[in-house]
Design goal:
This protein is α/β, with parallel strands linked by helices. Helix content is 41%, strand content 18%. The protein is globular.
Length: 184
């Protein structure tokens, strides 16, 4: 689906030859760059199966969607795949693919996730090689998750690594607005 979306957007601008020669990540990056409002801040949102877990009648993912409504930055949604559009919580946590899809012109990444990625070493290697600061928010209070997010933020040159306890999910919006510097 995302490949079809990338092809459709690229061919509208007449870049059909470019579509055939681009890798999946290049096509995804081209789709993001062609959005007229790219701010330089990319919000990466975990849509793995565990984000469907409910607290107080709402899933973690629903709290996240409520929190990002007013943010004026580009968004990537990921689980086993990476998309520029919302998806339902399912699958695994392929953070490596999400980090690889980030355009090189990105100035800051804000990652929101509720757990460890499929491959921690791979995600850390990509983050370190890209050198785009990653500010992280972990949903929950798992010590291993907190440690990973702090390490990810540190290797990328990011400054903020925090966590939001499940019972404090309604405060997520304020934290995201502060990190992104956006709002109404």
């Amino acid at each position: 689906m995302i490949i079809t979306e990338c092809k459709r957007r690229l061919t509208k601008s007449g870049d059909i030859a470019e579509v055939k020669s681009l890798s999946f990540c290049d096509r995804l990056q081209a789709t993001i760059k062609k959005s007229n409002n790219f701010t330089g801040t990319m919000l990466i949102l975990d849509c793995s199966g565990s984000m469907g877990e409910k607290y107080d009648g709402k899933s973690k993912y629903e709290y996240l969607l409520d929190a990002i409504r007013e943010l004026k930055c580009d968004k990537l949604y990921f689980n086993s795949v990476v998309r520029t559009t919302q998806m339902y919580p399912s699958g695994s946590t392929n953070l490596t693919a999400a980090l690889e899809a980030i355009p090189p012109t990105t100035k800051k990444i804000i990652l929101v996730s509720d757990g460890l990625p499929d491959n921690q070493d791979s995600a850390l290697n990509v983050a370190e090689s890209r050198r785009i600061p990653i500010e992280t928010i972990l949903i929950g209070d798992d010590p291993k998750g907190i440690a990973f997010m702090k390490t990810l933020s540190a290797v990328s040159g990011g400054r903020v690594a925090t966590n939001v306890k499940i019972e404090d999910l309604p405060t997520l919006k304020g934290q995201l607005l502060a990190l992104s510097g956006s709002g109404r």
